[in-house]
Specification:
Blueprint (H helix, E strand, L loop, with lengths): L1 H22 L2 E10 L5 E4 L5 H13 L2 E9 L2 E6 L25 E4 L4 E8 L2 E8 L6 E9 L2 E10 L3 H14 L15 E8 L17 E7 L2 E10 L14 E4 H18 L8 E4 L2
Parallel strand pairs: 7-13
Antiparallel strand pairs: 1-3, 1-12, 2-14, 3-4, 4-5, 5-6, 6-7, 8-9, 9-10, 10-11, 11-12
Protein name: GLPGLI family protein
Keywords: Signal
Pfam families: Porph_ging (PF09697)
Length: about 280
């Protein structure tokens, strides 16, 4: 009888230690993002030589090659671009290329409270976008593969075209007839397939960007022509990781921010719509 009690007590203690470790589980995942822009970019400008266009294209492509760090624990995470001290490179005609609204802001996710907070800079102004955490109805595909030493499983999610996207595209097409050229072009919206690979060996329901909601850390994500791949992991480091909630910028909702961006794009189009020495950029997905 004493032996049975001893065994039960030991089992309870081991379970308590296991739960404690799970609650304190933390780490960092380093991701590399790359977008295949071959055949997707088109530039039209009467004021740029072919050499300038080529340099412009190269600079644009670099804007789609980023490195990020996801710092996480069981319930919170911060996803942000890795800061580097590389010297700036000149681009076509002395212009520096910076993709506005390229979603490079710091993203904070609180899985417990289902809250997302994002810091974004748009045309020199900082915004703090607060929203409910996006919900993904993942479909487990039954495929597996190794990423590094971890066994990963495939899951997909299809984002349908919203009525708002259809309306915005219809408005764009109508306004196209009112000007000779457009500074930025818009493709007809289509369903977007998101494919991810997650590993239950890292019991964190999290991943790069806004992605989460699977029984394991997402190590790879593919959408449009972009692939985000985990290149390095640090689990349970000796020094405790601090996850800071973003606080910089004007507080807005996601819909308010998207409306602001849309208005700015329309303003840019109207200002460049005279066809005189403007730069026409088309991005095809």
């Amino acid at each position: 009888m004493i032996k049975i009690i001893t065994k039960v007590t030991l089992a309870v203690l081991l379970l308590a230690v296991s739960v404690s470790k799970a609650q304190n589980f933390q780490g960092q995942a380093f991701y590399k993002s790359k977008t295949n822009m071959d055949g997707s970019l088109k530039i039209e400008s009467s004021s740029m030589t072919e050499e300038m266009k080529q340099k412009f294209m190269e600079s644009m492509k670099k804007e789609f090659e980023k490195e990020y760090i996801l710092t996480f624990n069981k319930s919170e995470s911060v996803y942000e671009e890795e800061q580097k001290l590389d010297a700036p490179e000149p681009s076509a005609g002395g212009m520096m290329i910076k993709m506005e609204n390229s979603n490079d802001g710091k993203i904070y996710k609180n899985i417990k409270d289902k809250v997302s907070i994002t810091e974004e800079e748009f045309f020199g102004k900082e915004f703090l976008i607060t929203d409910s955490l996006s919900t993904y109805q993942w479909k487990i595909e039954g495929e597996s593969k190794k990423i590094g030493e971890y066994t990963c499983y495939k899951a997909t999610y299809t984002i349908p075209v919203s009525e708002k996207e259809k309306e915005e595209y219809a408005n764009f097409k109508n306004k196209q007839t009112d000007s000779k050229t457009q500074f930025l072009m818009m493709d007809e919206p289509k369903e977007q397939l998101i494919s991810v690979w997650y590993t239950p060996e890292i019991p964190i329901s999290n991943g790069p960007g806004e992605y989460w909601g699977l029984p394991g850390l997402i190590l790879e994500a593919s959408f449009d022509k972009t692939v985000v791949l985990c290149s390095k992991l640090i689990l349970n480091p000796k020094d405790k990781l601090i996850i800071k909630v973003p606080k910089t910028g004007k507080k807005v909702t996601k819909s308010e921010y998207e409306s602001l961006v849309q208005k700015q794009m329309e303003l840019m189009n109207s200002q460049r719509g005279d066809g005189k020495d403007g730069i026409r950029i088309e991005v095809h997905r």
